[in-house]
């Protein structure tokens, strides 16, 4: 037998063990270390939802920190005036904020007619639930009493800040500190479990504390969307509540994502059933021929199946869209193709739609205000959506990716400003364009708005739309050119009528 000949895979050989392979077989001893690995595989279980009654408050995921400097982290993810929770507690630059907390706690407890001892006991009795909300490494250095007192001081400060109208009526904060404290309230690593806030205000002698919280978020909610539609019982923390308010109660992105995910489920199930049946067939035979059939299935059948699914998908998409790839790059190209921009009926981030009428298209986008806190809030919202316990709709991330696909140049921002879609309080369109490009850097677009993109692409691919749009822009971009065109048409008509009657008279 030749050494290079793969006799063990030759299906013409007689079935049975190969004596040459048996001769070269080496007995390998399983060490304790390998036995431990084997045991870990045998004991592996699927992740189960946390049994903690309150959702966890994670740190910023590593993928969001990749490539950023320490100064960037402090600027966008670290509190500047006051800390809430254990992650940034005790840092030197936040010591002044610790001195403010007792004064706010005193004001809130007095206004709510509560005893500080009673509130402390309620938090202390739920301290295990509090511990499970935070990262273990950050919480171990605090004993139960210290952690419960931290929750009491931080929770009272937050609630007092809210009932004072965002700090406007409190005497312990100076005016320049108020917007900084508000920004600190919506940092991912600076959150308190909403369950802790509920423990503090549930027996407070304050008229509907939940309404006060909703009023506090009122200026951040979408127009036409009531925050009262979002039940506070489902809120993990204030950042989660802000996210729900921005997305609105409709959550249009959820429906699109669900439909996209459910579509291939039957095909996946069919493929899994076929594979299981084939593996069971192999399990009952150890012959070389069956081995070859099994390997052929494992490698060739998935490829064949993939080709079938790809052809089916291309056939389906070709009926809806001549080109499945997005070729438009920014708003200027869409405008040149006759697509106009309008503000949506609401400011919900999911309220995005596109309509095509002959050679004109209308893309409706939600109202968005851009200021100094916009980047920090969006970065923390995106970081929250990447955490394991966060909602799975990726509503904010998908919106930002979609908007980034439209904004590539300051002129794109200028166009959205002119249509009253973006309100720029930064003063520079270049800065706004840069912000969206930086926020979405390395983010994966889940194509929640694929239907909208496909409709835009279908309109964009019609060259006649571009020609008509360019002609209208070049020749009818001002009232004077329109009036000149009407006058020219009127003169031509008069000349034609005059010529007709002249010929008729002769």
How would you summarize what this structure contains?
With 506 residues, the protein is mostly helical.
Task: Spell out the helices and strands N to C.
Answer: HHHHHHHHHHHHHHHHHEEEEHHHEHHHH
Q: Count of helical segments? A: 24
Tell me the overall shape. Answer: extended
The helix-and-strand class reads: mainly alpha
The side-by-side strand order for the widest beta sheet comes to: 1-3-2
The parts where pLDDT drops under 50 for at least 5 residues are: 250-268, 277-323
Cα-atom radius of gyration: 32 Å
What is the number of E strands? 5
Helix coverage percent: 55-70%
Q: Report the mean per-residue pLDDT as an integer.
A: 77
Question: Helix and strand layout, with pairings?
Answer:
Blueprint: H1 19-24, H2 32-42, H3 62-65, H4 70-76, H5 95-111, H6 116-125, H7 127-133, H8 136-139, H9 144-163, H10 178-185, H11 194-201, H12 209-216, H13 238-247, H14 252-262, H15 265-283, H16 288-320, H17 331-336, E1 339-343, E2 353-357, E3 360-365, E4 368-370, H18 374-385, H19 395-406, H20 410-418, E5 422-424, H21 429-439, H22 450-460, H23 463-475, H24 479-505
Helix pairs in contact: 5-9, 6-9, 9-11, 15-16, 19-21, 20-21
């Amino acid at each position: 037998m030749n050494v290079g000949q793969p006799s063990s895979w030759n299906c013409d050989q007689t079935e049975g063990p190969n004596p040459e392979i048996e001769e070269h077989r080496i007995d390998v001893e399983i060490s304790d270390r390998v036995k431990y690995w084997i045991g870990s595989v045998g004991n592996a279980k699927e992740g189960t939802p946390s049994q903690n009654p309150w959702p966890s408050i994670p740190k910023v995921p590593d993928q969001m920190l990749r490539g950023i400097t320490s100064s960037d982290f402090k600027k966008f993810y670290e509190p500047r005036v006051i800390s809430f929770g254990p992650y940034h507690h005790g840092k030197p630059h936040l010591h002044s904020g610790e001195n403010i907390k007792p004064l706010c706690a005193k004001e809130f407890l007095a206004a709510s007619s509560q005893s500080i001892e009673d509130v402390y006991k309620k938090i202390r009795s739920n301290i295990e639930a509090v511990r499970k909300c935070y990262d273990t490494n950050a919480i171990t250095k605090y004993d139960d009493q210290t952690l419960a007192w931290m929750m009491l001081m931080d929770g009272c400060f937050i609630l007092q800040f809210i009932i004072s109208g965002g700090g406007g009526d409190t005497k312990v904060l100076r005016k320049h500190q108020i917007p900084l404290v508000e920004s600190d309230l919506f940092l991912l690593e600076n959150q308190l479990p909403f369950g802790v806030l509920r423990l503090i205000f549930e027996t407070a002698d304050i008229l509907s504390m939940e309404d006060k919280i909703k009023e506090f978020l009122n200026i951040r909610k979408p127009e036409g969307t009531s925050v009262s539609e979002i039940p506070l019982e489902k809120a993990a923390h204030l950042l989660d509540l802000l996210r729900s308010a921005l997305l609105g109660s409709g959550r249009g992105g959820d429906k699109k994502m669900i439909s996209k995910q459910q579509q291939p489920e039957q095909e996946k199930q069919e493929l899994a059933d076929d594979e299981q049946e084939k593996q069971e067939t192999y399990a009952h035979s150890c012959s070389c021929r069956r081995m070859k059939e099994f390997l052929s299935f494992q490698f060739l059948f998935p490829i064949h199946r993939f080709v079938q699914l790809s052809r089916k998908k291309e056939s389906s998409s070709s009926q809806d869209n001549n080109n499945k790839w997005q070729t438009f790059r920014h708003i200027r190209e869409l405008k040149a193709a006759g697509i106009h921009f309008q503000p949506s009926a609401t400011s919900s981030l999911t309220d995005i739609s596109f309509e095509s009428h002959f050679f004109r298209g209308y893309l409706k986008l939600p109202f968005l205000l851009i200021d100094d806190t916009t980047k920090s809030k969006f970065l923390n919202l995106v970081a929250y959506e990447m955490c394991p316990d966060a909602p799975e709709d990726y509503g904010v991330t998908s919106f930002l990716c979609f908007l980034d696909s439209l904004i590539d140049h300051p002129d794109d921002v200028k166009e959205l400003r002119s249509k009253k879609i973006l309100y720029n309080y930064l003063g520079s369109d270049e800065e706004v364009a840069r912000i969206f490009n930086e926020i979405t850097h390395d983010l994966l677009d889940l194509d929640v708005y694929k239907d909208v993109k496909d409709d835009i692409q279908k309109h964009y691919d019609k060259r006649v739309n571009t020609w008509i749009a360019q002609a209208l822009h070049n020749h009818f971009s001002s009232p004077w050119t329109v009036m000149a065109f009407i006058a020219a048409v009127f003169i031509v008509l008069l000349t034609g009528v005059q010529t007709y009657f002249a010929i008729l008279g002769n």
